């Protein structure tokens, strides 16, 4: 088989290999023969996604693998004011657990918890920023189930006081959101930013302001970060 023909077949299959062998006109890929009825046994299926995180099947300008959420990825909460906004991420239950609405929040940091170890829920926040500052949530491993990202907005916070930026494993910005106004001068109110599914990797923008204090519509709820209530 002509080597250029072999490379074309490999690209069509979506597989990659650093080695090829020609045996009697047939290309051997790993332990299987390419060019007849036998497909390569080491070809890897690629998960493709649209820009909003929804899965898709055929690669195109709107359907590209780099749009998928692959752990580890980050959620940045960035602001420049002196307000003390807080990050909260509701997470799926670990296997065998039925805790109501498990969550991690901005105090789930490496300095005071075991969040960097290989223990549930596989999530860390870089710091509990008191403002101005950034709180960067790193999701180290995805579990099947729904994740919900929320922000506790500081009292009397103006519109666009905070930006949430979702970045994929390579650091590329997948999507961003700007905060609504919290006109209450007494309460930290809730901003439900977005959800994502750990199995399908589908991202759903919610961008909804909730006029209630934590835990809002998740009551009761359960602290899931190791070492933090």
Task: Name a few traits of the molecule.
229 residues, mainly beta, Lipoxygenase-1, 2 domains, six-stranded mixed beta sheet, five-stranded antiparallel beta sheet, 1 helix, 34% strand, globular, disordered N terminus
Q: In angstroms, what is the radius of gyration?
A: 22 Å
N-to-C order of helices and strands? HEEEEEEEEEEEEEEEE
**In terms of per-residue confidence, which ranges show pLDDT below 50 for 5 or more consecutive residues?**
3-45
Name the average pLDDT.
80
Which of globular, elongated, flat, extended, rod-shaped describes the shape? globular
DSSP strand content: 25-35%
Protein architecture, described:
This protein has two domains: 65 residues, no CATH class; 151 residues, Sandwich (Lipoxygenase-1), CATH 2.60.60. Helix content is 5%, strand content 34%. The protein contains one helix and 16 strands. A six-stranded mixed beta sheet has the order 15-14-11-7-8-16, with no helix packed on it. A five-stranded antiparallel beta sheet has the order 9-10-6-12-13, with no helix packed on it. A hairpin with a 5-residue loop joins β12 and β13. The N terminus is likely disordered.
């Amino acid at each position: 088989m002509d080597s250029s023909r072999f490379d074309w077949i490999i690209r069509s299959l979506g597989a990659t290999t650093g080695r090829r062998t020609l045996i009697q006109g047939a290309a051997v890929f790993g332990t299987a023969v390419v060019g007849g009825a036998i497909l390569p046994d080491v070809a890897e299926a690629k998960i493709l996604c649209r820009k909003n995180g929804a899965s898709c099947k055929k690669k195109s300008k709107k359907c590209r693998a780099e749009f998928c959420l692959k752990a580890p990825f980050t959620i940045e909460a960035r602001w420049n004011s002196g307000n003390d906004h807080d990050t909260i991420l509701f997470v799926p239950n670990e296997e065998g657990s039925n805790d109501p609405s498990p969550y991690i929040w901005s105090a789930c940091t490496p300095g005071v918890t075991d969040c960097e170890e290989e223990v549930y829920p596989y999530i860390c926040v870089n710091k509990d920023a008191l403002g101005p500052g950034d709180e960067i949530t790193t999701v180290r491993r995805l579990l099947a189930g729904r994740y919900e990202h929320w922000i506790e907005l500081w009292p009397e916070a103006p519109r666009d006081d905070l930006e949430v930026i979702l970045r994929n494993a390579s650091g590329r910005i997948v999507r961003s959101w700007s905060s609504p106004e919290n006109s209450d001068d007494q309460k930290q109110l809730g901003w439900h930013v977005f959800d994502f599914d750990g199995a399908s990797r589908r991202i759903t923008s919610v961008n909804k302001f909730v006029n209630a204090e934590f835990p809002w519509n998740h009551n009761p709820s359960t602290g899931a970060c190791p070492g933090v209530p």
